[in-house]
Amino acid sequence: MAIGALLAPLVEAPAASAAPRADEVRHPVDYVDPLIGSAGGGNTYPGANLPFGMIAWSPTSTTGDQTNTAAANGYSYDTTRVRGFSLTHVNGAGCHPGAAGDVPIMPFVGEVDSSPTADTKDQKYAAGFSHDQEKAEPGRYRVGLDSGAAADLAVSERAGVADFSFPQDAPARLLFRTSNSLNGSENAHIEIDAQRRKVTGWVLTGAFCGRRANGGENNRTTYYRLYFSASFDRAFSTVGTWENDRLSPGATTADGGEGYLTGADRAGRGSGGYVGFDTTRDNDVRMRLGISYVSLAGAEANLRAEIAPRASVADVAAAGRAAWDRRLRAIRISGGSEPRRTAFYTALYHALQQPNLISDTDGRYPGMDGTPHRVERGQTAQYSNFSGWDQYRAQVQLLALLQPQVAGDFAQSLFNFARQNGGVWDRWVHISGATHVMTGDPSAATLATFYAMGVRNFDAEGAFDSLYRQATVPHPDGLSDKGCPGQCEGQRPNLAQYLDSGYAAQDACHCWGGAAETLEDSVADDALARWARLLGRDKEADALGARGGYWRHVFNPEATGAAGYIQARNRDGSWVTPFDPASDRGFAQGSAATYTWMVPQDVQGLAEAMGGRERAAARLDGFFHKPDGSWSVRGGDPLRYDPTNEPGIHAPWLYNALGQPWKTQETVRQIVATVYGTGPKGLPGNDDLGTMSAWYVFAALGIYPQAPGRAEALLTGPLFPRAVIAPAGQRRALTIGAPDASDSHLYVHAVRVNGRPHATSWLDGSFLRQGGSLSFDLADRPDTTWATAPGGLPR
């Protein structure tokens, strides 16, 4: 019954669609490779998880420093030594280390005769492995270690089952490194109950991006506690704990954190415990475990509710695999090569890993005010892990399209957090913590996008009022430099100055960069304006709409003499000099050359500022090509396109608005073919909680969100001959057909929408909201006449 309960919330009414083709993918889960992105800076993790799940059970690797890891999220394909299997992870965060990695649990072969925390170089209590002994699949992770031990892990949403096997002729021990979260910890606690064959405890931690040089010190704080409860199928042969360098054989409790520093300032600190087993007759140890962010009782209730007492790893893995298959079948593709199917469904898998549950099965969750709360009336669950600056550009649109119920619950979750946080919507929320990471007001863009795409299961009026207040009423934090530049506490920094000047002044903004802040706030205000219009709030819509054009105040038409660029300004109106298009002065994780294109809400206005669409398109050519005409889409050149970070990822679609859609088609295909792929290096850079993966999914389908706060979609040539998009819980479906799709046939010659000729390179928002059929006639050479009429260009 408990495994059935695991599947129950994931069973949804299928959307109506045409009969499947013979070459349609029947089980998308077969094409998922969780190791994609685990090398080359993708920062994904290969461990066991479920869609939007709380638990993510995955290895923590080591390169010989117990206070650090081999990659931002604990695992690097190129590092084959682990010190445990941690219960929580965040997909693709860019800080190193990123976040979570809580409670590594390590099968150890040998006697525990010294404190594992004193093993600061991970020389004794870690183990190597080879990839031929490793298998990662949706919902399950298995690996054999060089020590002779092995781990087989499978999960439900909030719980898991593990089989740990050991050699029969050596001591078998299981270490609980309770304090050793990726970023360290303030405190940790463990209790071993030999009579009941249980190990319980918690870690008090946080500190997301706490090691960043540009403001991370401000984030070396605690904001959540993770509880765990583990029970075993056999008695313990030995027990013990440790605190710092002191080992206590036979002890059953221990406390102590590591702090949030690194290297010698943290090495040798922390606590944990171990249990041993007699494996002479049976070398396999089964552990059942539940977690909670609310209480130990909540962790145990989550385990009881989701996993049956006698469920095996195989049972739980089968249920998890079915759950993933069901979610992934929201898009059913036909045709395409095996590698492309793998790249596509793995991207969809990564895009649907977040947001993450933080509420227990009883609806309780930790609030941002430090106290427990229950989900709101009509809300299914409380979600967190909001990488707003990244996600609002692609991932939230995919979430709204495929999982509108989850999107609505997520919107309500962010509103709940804001109310618990004094009305402040933080731009990067981790568990129940406001981390302030990045810049701009992505919550406004995100919720406006959800509403535009038809998501209604949240308090839209209340959320809008709250976000409008944040955008119009200055907050004391907006004058603080704490955490600046990378994690400034003000969510609308120095708002009074911004409203007075019409831009964020570089010398007075209390932000990462004045030019970037202005562009971000312009996008957010335009999105809020469109939301206000849909709500019938015309007065607010007019005021916010005008602010959506504030990007013009930081566009200097004479920035270089040869061309205009977005450029930071001082409060007195002067331009910040000297100016270099390759410089990031005034910007956040990007150059002026990249940010100049970040005006998705007003491409026609940007083109006009550049001297017209023809001149803008010629400049865009230079953004994607080197002076010799060869492609430059892999990154590394600050004057050109960077596929590894978000400010410019919409740029390939700008050609549609500039009247040259065939260049969008060839540019997108070039990026898809050369920057994305299979294997551990198959992502261009940080996945950023599914954002880069969502970009690929949209590119492969031939559609892309036009701008935040809107449901319109831009068109390009699809990668597959057919795709059926079946949003969860709804009876509508979207069918995309491109019978001639191939490596050579990538150019759009004609389009039909619901059987009628369609002469523009964009779709009205009703298509994504209501469904229908979209068919492409593709050719092997550019069609320079389709969708080029000035009156039909995207605006």
From TrEMBL:
UniProt KW Hydrolase keyword: yes
Ranges for domain Glycosyl hydrolase family 92 N-terminal: 31-292
Xref: InterPro entries: 6-hairpin_glycosidase_sf (IPR008928), GH-type_carb-bd (IPR014718), GH92_a_mannosidase_put (IPR005887), GH92_N (IPR041371), Glyco_hydro_92 (IPR012939), PNGase (IPR050883)
Transmembrane segments: none
Keyword annotations of the record: Hydrolase
Gene3D superfamilies assigned: 2.70.98.10, alpha-1,2-mannosidase, alpha-1,2-mannosidases domains, GH92 mannosidase domain
Mitochondrion keyword on record: no
Domain Glycosyl hydrolase family: 298-779
Coiled coil: none
GO molecular function, one term: hydrolase activity
One Pfam family from the record: Glyco_hydro_92
Name of the protein in question: GH92 family glycosyl hydrolase
Organism for this UniProt entry: Streptomyces mordarskii
